[in-house]
Amino acid sequence: MTPPATRLLGRTGLVVSRLGLGLAAVGRPGYITLGRAHDLPAERTPAAMYRRSAAVLDAAWADGVRYVDVARSYGRAEEFLARWLAERAPDPDAVTVGSKWGYRYTAGWLVDADVHEQKELSRARFAAQLDESRALLGERLALYQIHSATAESGVLGDESLLRDLVDARHRGAFRALGLTLTGATARRTLDLALEARVDDVRVFDVVQATYNVLEPSLRDGLAAAHAEGIGVIVKEAHANGRLTPANARPEDAALRARLDGLARDIAAPIDRLALAFVAAEPWVDVVLSGAATVAQVRSHAAAMACELDAGTRAALGDLAEAPATYWQTRAALAWA
Asked: Strand 141-149 and strand 96-101: pairing?
């Protein structure tokens, strides 16, 4: 077997693969990715969802994926990953695991729950969820991230919380600290994160952010962060399914027609086209697949070798939406 292609995640010393796997779509029965009725089994019991998670993880491992992303709010994603690691028993250094704290899963394993997640970026929530993540993942927990930090939340100005984060890293609760970005003001959040210091020590080692064909507004900021030694992980490369064959939204008919035409030109499905657009950026350390099926894993893995010519990249760049429009559309997507 050919050894997987890996790289270092910024200056963290963590070894990652260019393609990572996020378990948001398979760690719980409901999510906001388009096409779930087609992708997932009709029976979404915890047992059925673990079987799907394990199958996706097995396929990702076979295709060289060595970074896995979970979170406290992804239903049983941490539990499923811990079980898979125990059953498959890969070498401790062979898989890098990142998780997140801040949201609490509240859906009670229902797809149609009124509230799926509850957010609280407090010291108490951090301490409690770190204990929960460590109880499941133990020493496997390498990267711990604030989940959906925003400038408006004030979390990046909470000096006591920032000190707690740095102290936990120092005592070895995890090896690297990160945050994930969301919303139209993400650039301001990124700037605050890069400025954050405790005793003149930089707080954050890694940033995880949305970057895709429709929402490329953080490109320059992420490239600059990477140049400073910050690890960069890209999430939502498929825009929650809008950049996949599952997108049948009437509002996106013109978008789909354009994507289908470009995909035909390179003889690849549009999900692969969208992922290749992100993977081509030299500042991207990891681009996450949110695959819910083995076939999707294989298509996404193939995207790592898919080279786009300048004309195709320019045509994809023309599809960008205003950040406010993009995030309003994302907020309106239904849990399914």
From this structure: parallel
> pLDDT tens digits for 203-238?
999 999 999 999 999 999 999 999 999 999 999 999
Residue 320 structural domain: 17-134+213-219+231-330
Output the six-digit token pair for 152: 């408006």
Q: Is residue 281 part of a domain?
A: yes
Q: What is the dihedral of CA 190, 196, 201, 205, to 10 degrees?
A: -30
**Is 11 within a domain?**
no
| pTM exceeding 0.85 | yes
Domain presence at residue 172: no
Q: Is 199 contained in some domain?
A: no
**Phi, psi of 180, deg, nearest 5:** -110, 145
Judged on CB neighbours under 10 Å (0-12, 13-18, 19+), 316 is: buried
Q: How far is CA 98 from CA 42, 46, 110, 173, in A?
A: 29, 22, 25, 12
